[in-house]
């Protein structure tokens, strides 16, 4: 069973749900989507009965967590989601794996009282409950901290207007030590035996050490070959404490040498805003299908012929949210890449983006990813 929710769902996902008659909650967002694709819409009571029957649920947006909290309150899934959504509780649960990891939870009022010298920089400041890179700041000096606190105060009303409390939480924040290394994202699920099944691994590419944007992610045969086994061991160890079954998740980690340190486990979904579709363009994997049908990718076969290629997801975030999508030159952007697999134009007032691009790039041409990563995108706007 699947819950569709705003702000966005891809046609690729809707095609699968329609073709396979997957049970979908009949909320406003799904009814709107059903104008374009025939969907198997179920009422609240039917969805609850369906969950009782098979115990599997997938959400396309964390906005759907409200329905789960309100309708499945007597199920263990609520406790599991709550722990993963709360970054402080999550750190507490995995403390045995990382006994020396430093972190502290503070209220918004306590931000102004932080003893900067006591909490050894660099460190990360972010909401205890959050989504994407909302309110995530890398703090190197006192000026960074002061700027972050000011931005939080100025931005919090905008966050609250765009996301429900279940997504962004209250006004608590977590300070945690900076995690060095390369950042990776993992779309995976724990099956009905609690075994981790990895569906995709992609690296988060940054423009600089202070960059926290979500502009570029890419996956490759080399990434899968290198990290699938160690990430499986990591997820297996973590589940000794998490105790998850039939549970999809989007996991973010950093790898420094042989150390794998989690950033967060995002519950009940894979990469948000349908960005998990990069697995389809790279490997022919519909991640939701693999979860709902308990399938495991045969990567030894899937990866044949993929050597030397990067498969990227590029988020076209607006440099200024007041810029209309109508001025964006999608053709110029399209022509700046070696091989565009899909260009998704998104004109949604609830999303400050122009759209997404899925690309295939030869490793030797990775400079095109570096270029788009550093661009403010004004060059693609025709005024």
UniProtKB/TrEMBL annotation:
Residues 87-296 form the ATP-grasp domain. It comes from the Bacteria. The keyword Nucleotide-binding applies. This is ATP-grasp domain-containing protein. Keywords: ATP-binding, Ligase, Nucleotide-binding. The lineage of its organism: Bacteria, Bacillati, Bacillota, Negativicutes, Selenomonadales.
